[in-house]
Amino acid sequence: CGQCSAFCPTGAIHEVTDFGPLREAIRQGKVIVAQTAPATRVAFAEEWGLEPGTVAERKMVGALKASGCHFVFDTNFTADLTILEEGTELLGRIKKGGPFPMITSCCPAWINMCEKLYPEFLPNLSTCKSPEGMLGALIKTYWADRMGKKPTEIFSLSIMPCTAKKDECRRDVLGRRGYQDVDMVLTTREAARWVKEQGFQEWAALPERDYDNPLSEYSGGAVLFAATGGVMEAALRTAYEVGTGRRLESVDFRAVRGWQGIREATVDFDGRPIKVAVAHSAGQARKLLDALRADPEHRLGLHFIEIMSCQGGCIGGGGQPKSNDPAVLQKRAGAIYALDTHMAVRRSHENVALQQLYTNFLGAPNSHKAHELLHTHYRDRSKEKQRTALVLYATQTGNS
Ligand code: SF4
């Protein structure tokens, strides 16, 4: 009825399947540029009845290209970029003594919750946009320039595991000069429905294609963004090696993996203990933040926290295929860790295409240009929450 999306405190209840804007963009002859999130590749095939955890990168790209997309980029590329920007931000905070703990910012449902319910933690949030926001900005600036296109000639379409991304792409800070960086978000389920509507009912009939370049190369660290603890693990790989100048013997930070709702670990940065925590699901995030509210000493002792609003992280996102398999999250996570293990490059800072992007366009991590395009700011919306509660109360009680 629309009531839920008006009152949902995280902006997560926004799933509607109106393909109108996409159809209109195709009709107008716009260049349709899609990006696909890390978690979509291990779930997309489930909509055709395949096992959870089936890795379907090339089929998914082929399906999108056969269904109207001219170019398909991989959000994994900007997951690596997020690590470079966020890792540099963390090292900067370690150098200047805070504010701590720094908290990840790639989950828009968590950002909404922080702005509305925990505004005192706003200075703790990383200023990095989500990987989707970063890729949207690059598509409409760097890539558009290379292609000789105006941003308004491009229709930027995101395929995400996430319903809250539909809310995120409407934020003013995710656009400039009258246009948004991401024009439309389709969840994994909606993207599959779109592809089927184009006549691809059978999995076998889907063509296989590769992602386009130069915005698709990725490391093992990037693909970990799909699972709880993954952003933390990828960030630790880079922050340790860049911060200490030493090479890790093993890049597997097993202490931040797993299914426990809240996990804490201490990582030795060459004699300096760095304390981190990971929380997944909104309930566990609130539990952790309430505990930190009550114990400022513990709060200040932590350096870095990852918060993801969905159980298991994005592999369990609200826009992923529904499943009756009780092991669905384990199967998707298993596929994500296997992908990471088999990558030749597992550290975000060793992504060669990313190094070239810095050389040719951005300069250096946290440079002025990087800040302009890849970082954002937040605002205290706690009053908005109270207003929403009052409107809801008035609606329910008939008082105005
Ligand atoms: Fe979206 Fe859930 Fe991932 Fe957050 S954890 S970005 S709400 S899918």
Describe what this molecule looks like in 3D.
This is NADPH--hemoprotein reductase. It comes from Paratrimastix pyriformis. Residues 1-18 form the 4Fe-4S ferredoxin-type domain. With 400 residues, this protein is an alpha/beta fold. It has a single domain (3-385), classed as Fe-only Hydrogenase (Larger Subunit), Chain L, domain 3 (3-Layer(aba) Sandwich), CATH 3.40.950.10. It has helices spanning 3-7, 20-27, 57-66, 76-96, 108-117, 131-147, 165-168, 188-197, 220-223, 230-244, 282-294, 296-301, 328-341, 352-362, 368-374, 382-397; strands spanning 31-36, 71-74, 102-103, 154-160, 175-176, 179-180, 184-187, 262-269, 272-280, 304-308. Helix 3 links the parallel strand 1 (31-36) and strand 2 (71-74). Mean pLDDT is 92; it is low at 1-12 and 395-400. The structure holds iron/sulfur cluster. Iron/sulfur cluster binds at residues 107-109, 161-162, 164, 308-310, 313-314, 317.
